[in-house]
Please model this.
Amino acid sequence: MRKIVIAGNWKMYKDLEDVRAFCKAIASSLETKDLGRVLPILAPAYPFLALLQRELSDTSVKVAAQDASAHSEGAFTGEVSAAMLTSLGLEYAIVGHSERRAMHNESNEIVREKLMMLMDNSIKPILCVGETLEQRDADDTQKVILEQLNGCLNNVSLYSAEDIMIAYEPVWAIGTGRTATGEQAQEVHSIIRNWLTHTYSQALADEIPILYGGSVKPDNIAGLLAMPDIDGGLIGGASLKADQYLEMINIALESRK
Ligand code: PEP
Model:
């Protein structure tokens, strides 16, 4: 049975005080809860990774980075290497987010280099893929998603379903309040799962979590999780509020898929 992942991407929000307050608000309810196959993940900005790990160490929340450098080390001012993340004990990092693809010109090749660097350092990538509105309107969604998968995972070996998660994030749904319907998302998730089957194996495809991202919130997450190939959410805005994040974890706990 696949995990149900409730992953919060905090982007460039929250300062030290906000981060402490969030941890305080969620730690006590999560410390005592059996989360079964629900896996909560939080991705704060780099300066707060170690703090979050410390503050949430008695919970099952896993802390993730939002990105990592494609370089191993060296004179790359401002960059953070995968090895540095490993040295903190991190297990996950987001890679290929549409904001990085659009604002930092990250091509599929660069995303692949980052992904390989993460995997070489035993960090599981949460690989984001997704089409723009123009691409969807031109009926190019499937083509774009397959190009991204083929490019970012070109000759990348996966040995276990634990090695990676994929997040389908239609660009037109990120931060816009406009969510894909369960059916729209399911259609793409099933394309991704089929691709995993053909590229790797049925066994791996059956176990790799495929998350949906794009204006997920407590009001719509149950409908999305009810879809057969949607295994959780990569959530921006709604993950910034402790009560909403906890509510989405509770909804995931009740999901009977
Ligand atoms: C995201 O940051 O990946 C995201 C999906 O944001 P939002 O939930 O705010 O649309």
The first strand starts at residue 4 and ends at 9. The beta strands are 4-9, 38-43, 62-65, 92-95, 124-129, 165-168, 210-212, 232-235. The chain has eleven helices and eight strands.
